[in-house]
Structures are given as structure tokens and as C-alpha cells.
Amino acid sequence: MLIRTYRDSDFETLREITGICFDGISIDQNIERLYGVIAGKDWRWRKKRHIDADVAGNRDGIFVAEVAGKVVGFISSRADRESRFGWIANFAVLPGHQKKGIGTRLIEAAFDYLRAEGMEYVRIEALDQNPIATRFYPRLGFRAVARQIHYVMPLSPA
Ligand SMILES: CC(C)(COP(=O)(O)OP(=O)(O)OC[C@H]1O[C@@H](n2cnc3c(N)ncnc32)[C@H](O)[C@@H]1OP(=O)(O)O)[C@@H](O)C(=O)NCCC(=O)NCCS
């Protein structure tokens, strides 16, 4: 297994991995369960756009995991040099490759990058409905600081 920095040619693969891995743990999927497909775009279309934002926002903070020459996971991060806070934006490993330490290696790569960028703290968000993340992050040393509720309602014509 190899951890390396992001390349342009990884873009579609990262979007695909996102569409697969966030099944069951996506705010947009929760919304779709309540209201159906909105504007002809499903939850995967919306979630995959996070990768577009990650690349536009900080491509240097994206690391991918390769197994036998294929990208099987990634992590994206941002570094706020004024506040010295780093942020893990998106993080996923394909189901067939999970529980083998790849996620841990990706997290370490992101932490190394953020430290090298001068960050003093790192933040991450996880949904309550994501049991892997909510167990894994405290074990890494993250401490819970707040819980948030996401609300949605349709804007019916006035
Ligand atoms: C979170 C994720 C990236 C971890 O990747 P991974 O390669 O499995 O990570 P690791 O193998 O290093 O395992 C990390 C921890 O998660 C646990 N874990 C991973 N997959 C698991 C599963 N399917 N069931 C239960 N625990 C699991 C491991 O046991 C490990 O905990 P441990 O160190 O105490 O043993 C991966 O599970 C994933 O893509 N999940 C879906 C997307 C997601 O939740 N992203 C994060 C959003 S906040």
C-alpha cells in the first residue's frame, strides 16, 4: 500500500469512492429519504461535489491510498494559517479495503501535512449515525466539543 499526494487524474476516482463510502452516513441522503430527489440531482451528486470543493480549496492537502496501483481511499484537509487550525474535510476507504489500517495511514499523512503547515490543532466532524467514525476519532485523541442538528424544510410558493 502506498500513500501519495493527489494528482489531477485521481479526481473522478475520489468522486466515485465518495459516492460509495458515504452511503448511510450522508446528510444529503437523509434529506433525500424525507423529500425524495430534489432538482433532478440525487444525494450522491451533491456529496461528490465536496471533492470539487476540496480540490479547489486545497489540493495540496489531499492524500490518496493506492493498492496494486489502484486508488482505494483518500483524505482531504485544509490549513488555516491564521488560526493554526487544520480541518479534515473528507475521508474514505472503499469497503473492501477497510479495517486494514489504510484509514489510519491516511489520517497520519494528513496530520503530518498539517503539522508541516504550522497547524496546532485539527478538527473533524462526524455524524452521530456513523458508528465507525464516532468510535475511531476519540481513540485517535479527538475530543467531542459540540453536537449540531441539521434542519431542512421545503420553500413552498408564498
Ligand atoms: C472511516 C474510514 C475511512 C476508516 O478507514 P479504514 O481503512 O477502515 O481505517 P482503519 O483500518 O485504519 O481502521 C480505523 C478504525 O476503524 C475501525 N473500523 C474500520 N472499519 C470498520 C467497520 N466496517 N466496522 C467496525 N469498525 C471498523 C477499525 O477497527 C479501526 O479501529 P481500531 O484502530 O480501534 O481497530 C472507513 O471506515 C470509511 O471510509 N468509512 C465510510 C466513510 C466515513 O465514515 N468517512 C468519515 C466521515 S467522518
Describe the model:
The chain is an alpha+beta fold and 158 residues long. Helices cover 39% and strands 21% of the residues. A five-stranded mixed beta sheet has the order 1-2-3-4-5, sandwiched between helices. Helix 1 (11-21) packs across helix 3 (43-58) and helix 2 packs antiparallel against helix 3. Bound molecules: coenzyme A (COA). Coenzyme A binds next to strand 4, helix 4 and helix 5.
Keywords, please?
alpha+beta, binds coenzyme A
Strand content: 15-25%
Shape: globular
Number of helices: 5
Query: If you compute it from the alpha carbons, what radius of gyration comes out, rounded to the nearest whole angstrom?
Result: 16 Å
Bound small molecules, by name, code or SMILES, are: coenzyme A
Compact summary:
This protein has 158 residues and is of the alpha+beta class. It is built from five helices and five strands; from the N terminus they run βαααβββαβα.
Secondary-structure topology with pairs:
Layout lengths: L1 E4 L5 H11 L5 H9 L7 H16 L3 E6 L2 E11 L4 E9 L8 H15 L4 E3 L7 H10 L18
The site of coenzyme A has 19 residues, from strand 4, helix 4 and helix 5.
